[in-house]
Every structure is written in C-alpha cells, then in structure tokens.
Known about the structure:
The protein has helices spanning 42-46, 72-75, 95-105, 110-124, 139-151, 169-184, 196-202, 220-223, 227-232, 239-246, 256-267, and strands at 3-11, 17-26, 31-36, 57-62, 65-66, 79-82, 157-161, 188-192, 205-210, 213-219. It is of the alpha/beta class. Among the domains are: 1-71 and 193-237, Rossmann fold; 238-268, no CATH class. A hairpin with a 5-residue loop joins β1 (3-11) and β2. α3 (95-105) packs across α4 (110-124) and α3 packs parallel to α5. The chain is globular, with a radius of gyration of 19 Å. It binds adenosine-5'-triphosphate and magnesium ion. Magnesium ion is lined by residues 42-43, 84, 161.
Amino acid sequence: MNIIVSALSFTYPSGVEALHGVNLAIAAGEAVAILGENGAGKTTLVKHFNGLLRPTRGTVAVGGWDTREHSVAQMAARAGYVFQNPDDQLFERTVQAEVMFGPHNLGRTAAEAGAAAADALAQVGLAAQSGANPYDLHLSERKLLALAAVLAMHTPVVVLDEPTTGQDARGVARISGIVEALKAEGRTVIAISHDVDFCAEHFDRVVLMAGGLILADGPAADVFARADDLRRADVEPPQLVRLASALGLLGAPLRTEQFVDLLAQARL
Ligand SMILES: Nc1ncnc2c1ncn2[C@@H]1O[C@H](COP(=O)(O)OP(=O)(O)OP(=O)(O)O)[C@@H](O)[C@H]1O
Ligand SMILES: [Mg+2]
C-alpha cells in the first residue's frame, strides 16, 4: 500500500500555511523516519495519510485512494496514526475498550476485536492494566496505550508521531522491538522523531523537513552525512556519526557494527 503525496500545501483555519508544496512517495514496506525542527510541518504532513487533514492544494493518495474522496473511517483501515500527544487520541473509559474501539470500528466481531486487543496490549506490556482507566496511567503508559490502539487495527501502514518521547530505556527498547516486528511483517512504518539515534538504528530512509518543505530525502546514511541540511533542519547527527566525524573517519555509520568496521578499516 503505497503513499503518494503530490504538491501538498496545507493552511490551518488560523491562516498558518504549514506545508508548501510537498512531494513524497513511500512504497509499501518501507521504514521511513521524518525529522526536523519544531513546527517544521511533520505532524501536519502525516495527518494527511489517514485523512485527519485534507489538502488545501495538491493530493495525497494511499493505496490509490485519494484522501479527499474517502472518509477518515475508511482511511483508518489503511493507515493507523499514533498521535504525538496520547491525550488527543484516547477517549474511552478503560484500557481494554480503548484498544477494542479500532478493530470494532473496522467491522471485526467482538471476539476478533478482543483477541486483537489482547495481542496489542501484550506487545506494549499493558496486559495487566486492561481494566484501568487510561487517565490513571502515566504519560509514558498512555503513549504505549495509544500505540496498542493502532496496532490492534492491523493496518498496512503504521505512523508513529514521536513514539520514544518520555520513555525510559526499557520503553524505547519495547518500541524498537515493535518497529522491527512491523518491518518483518512487511508493513510500512513511518515515524516522526527527534531521537536521531532511534531513527538511525531502525529506519532505512530519512526525510528531513524544515519550514513546511522537504530539505532532504534518501537513505539514512546519505541524509545523516549531509551536515549543512541537518544544520538547516536543526537536527544533530546521530552519536555514531558525530563520533566517526570527530575521529576523521569517512562515512556515516548508523549501527555500532558499522562504526567498528569503519574504525578497523581506518587502522589498517
Ligand atoms: N491546530 C493548529 N492550528 C494552527 N496552526 C497549527 C496547528 N497545528 C500546527 N500548527 C502550526 O503549523 C506549523 C507546523 O506544525 P506541526 O505540528 O505540523 O509541526 P511539527 O514538525 O510536527 O512540530 P513538532 O516537532 O513541534 O511536533 C507550525 O507553525 C504550527 O504552529
Ligand atoms: Mg509534531
């Protein structure tokens, strides 16, 4: 299920033009990280993928469906969006009901929705809290609940908006495992993140945004080597890339093994 964004501009009712003619094509099964300064337009862009926002100009199509011609409920079967702020997403009175809402809304039976919910809650580590009120959970747990609510819908496209914010090391590891599992299933995973090390480790392609435009788009190793574009987008290179550059090594290693290889080569 591919995503094709063509000449997308979007103006909020307040008059703020948040996107100025964005072009982007994401193929089925890609893992794409979107990075950029605050207010760059990242959230505005991805909210177009499931029809939460509709283009002011230009078009967005998901699996050939023009988002202007389909309801949010229809788009939700194709692209699941985990909100940046879980409190904008969560509305049910129990954790269980929250995670069953999506599959139920997609027409699954109560038994199927229950099974999908149980699986998703186990994946995020909230199985024991299924009877709790979402507002009694910590923010980090509410973020995981918002993720579970989308996982339970089994959409071909999963969009995560700042998934690691506020998570401790264990939470980040859990989210990383979920991203890898989605990739292994061949699903499209798109994440917005300020966490460059998380992006470098799990996403093959990086889209850099600034001022409502795409500044750079390509393989993660290429984009993380473009120091000028990173500076313009106010994004620090990943730690391993900075370390390699400080040591005078050529290349942008994204994973520890790649860094070790580069270092070994330089010593030969
Ligand atoms: N609901 C809204 N009404 C009016 N303007 C908005 C609204 N949401 C966002 N904006 C504005 O649109 C622009 C892009 O915002 P957006 O939230 O897409 O950026 P972002 O890249 O996701 O930033 P962040 O990293 O802070 O989440 C900003 O100027 C922002 O102030
Ligand atoms: Mg945002």
